[in-house]
Amino acid sequence: MTTANPDRISRSFTIEGTAEILGGMKKQAEARGFTIMCDEGPPMGENTAPSPMTYFAVSILF
Predict the structure, then answer these.
(1) Alpha helices in the chain (DSSP H)
(2) pLDDT at residue 37 above 90?
(3) DSSP tag of 49
C-alpha cells in the first residue's frame, strides 16, 4: 500500500485549443488567445512558418 508524501507538491492544469490544416503541411492553432502557425520546409511544405520540431526544441529551452 502506498501512502501520500506530505512533502510532495502536485499541480495540474488544462489548456484548450483548436487546430486546422490550411493546405499542404501548413497548420494553424489557437490557444489562450495566441495564434500559432507551423509548416515544413521544401519539398514537403512551403517554409512559411517554423516546423513543429522547431517549436518542440525551443520549448525545451524555456
Answers:
(1) 52-61
(2) yes
(3) S
- What's the CA gap between 54 and 60, in Å, rounded? 10
pLDDT band at 2 (very low <50, low <70, confident <90, very high): low
> How crowded is residue 49: how many other Cβ atoms within 10 Å of its Cβ?
19
Q: Calculate ∠ Cα 15-16-22, nearest 5°.
A: 125
From 55, 17, 59, select the one nearest 35 (Cα to Cα): 17
pLDDT of residue 27: 97
CB 55 within 8 A of CB 38: yes
Helix, strand, coil percentages for the chain (3-state, nearest 5): 15, 30, 55
